[in-house]
Amino acid sequence: xxxxxxxxxxxxxxxxxxxxxxxxxxxxxxxxxxxxxxxxxxxxxxxxxxxxxxxxxxxxxxxxxxxxxxxxxxxxxxxxxxxxxxxxxxxxxxxxxxxxxxx
Length: 103
Description:
Order of helices and strands: EEEEEEEHEE
Helix content: under 10%
Strand content: over 45%
Mean pLDDT: 92
Distance between the termini: 38 Å
Radius of gyration: 15 Å
Number of helices: 1
CATH topology: Immunoglobulin-like
Number of strands: 9
């Protein structure tokens, strides 16, 4: 048994010349107001997710997605406010690699 949060492991599949469109729904319901979720790449690039209710979605234009080489590590990070204060909880939701179709 492990203690602490373990991120889910999955790969992001990208295709040259195509937008990356993806969404994930929170099975527990609506995400807290002020929650931020983004894909983070080692070169500092962030793809910010758009949160509506219980769903976060991304639409990354091909010109931006095409800059990520196959095999590049990524992390989807989550930051949500704790109660009404200034504290936040931060954790890695997903980790994995970029994979290129046909490469």
